[in-house]
Fold:
Amino acid sequence: MMSAYRPRLIDPLLVELLSELPALLVVGPRATGKTTTAARYAARVVRLDRADEAAAFRANPDAALRDLPEPVLLDEWQAVPEVLGAVKRAVDSDSRPGRYLLTGSVRADIDTETWPGTGRVVRVPMYPLTVAEQTGNAAQPLVDRLVAGEELAPASDTPDLRGYIDLALQGGFPEAALALSGRVRERWLESYVEQLLTRDALTLNGSRDPARLGRYFEAYALNSAGLAEHKTLYDAAGINRKTALAYERLLRNLMVVDELPAWTSNRLKRLVLSPKRYLIDSALLGGALGVDTTAVMRDGKLMGRLLETFVTAQFRAEATVATARPRLYHLRSERGRIEIDIVAELRGQRIIGIEVKASSAPSGEDARHLAWLRDNLSDQFIAGVVLHTGPATYSLGSRITAAPISTLWAGK
Structure:
């Protein structure tokens, strides 16, 4: 059974936004707990993926929405997209705060110029559980701690390398992470990927071929946290470029893949501009490839990709709520002479650099790219951190620290 509600990072943000805004749209991958969280702030929940509840909204969304006790949660809005227009009209006529919450696992219509929510519905992304959320540690986002100049301490139960791989393959989907274990969790994740590529994808693109989409997703998973040319992915999947672009857009609309854009600066020349691709949750790598901890331990390249995908997922969720409001990028110079896994850009173009290493005791050599960034940016560079799989925190030079990955969820 699922345990009691685990507070989410976005809970305080939702409270703050609902106190001043009339409508919020909480979006994220399927099965991340959006409905469970949003329902805590609603007087009435309407589940639009249920035919009996959706019928009235399809027939006359304005009438169906009228006179419902507020706040109203409209769950799975994409099942009845007409409801967005009704929310727009309701907000235009009465913009009192805290009237509507919408949740969904599709982003296709959100990115179009004709989407009716622009200026009226504020979008709040919600991602799978971080380890801090799973363990109940009230950890302040790492970026905020670095800005404040706090010392970085590991969690009291810091795992070893194998433990980190276990956590990465466990992932952050609440049901799988909190209620299941071992082979049952593996089956759940494999089923999630299968349904994603068959049923869920069908809702957005009925013309796709599940077998070819599956091959493309597997190629994507193998290259998560990588800078592989797109041609490498579609050649591996046996499809052409046009089909691959459609599949990538489909997976982005289902919110199960994401990109870190390339960071650029007028002060630094010859930087690669290609984005870095990621699965939204590291557990999907196991679900797509059918690998377990033992298999990952035998493959150093896969292990590095899994750990970076896992760490990036923690930062992605934290970035939504961090006071510093970081924008996340990656950095790579031409020919790969300089590579930094995550570059967090803050207001005023201040920079934090993050490296992820599958090493228990990184040295100054592992921090040389961060040192290069520090020396080139001078006062813009706030801090650099090499996150590693060992137990200790220590300095690797001016403004550069080696810290265990578990620092991400170390409580106060």
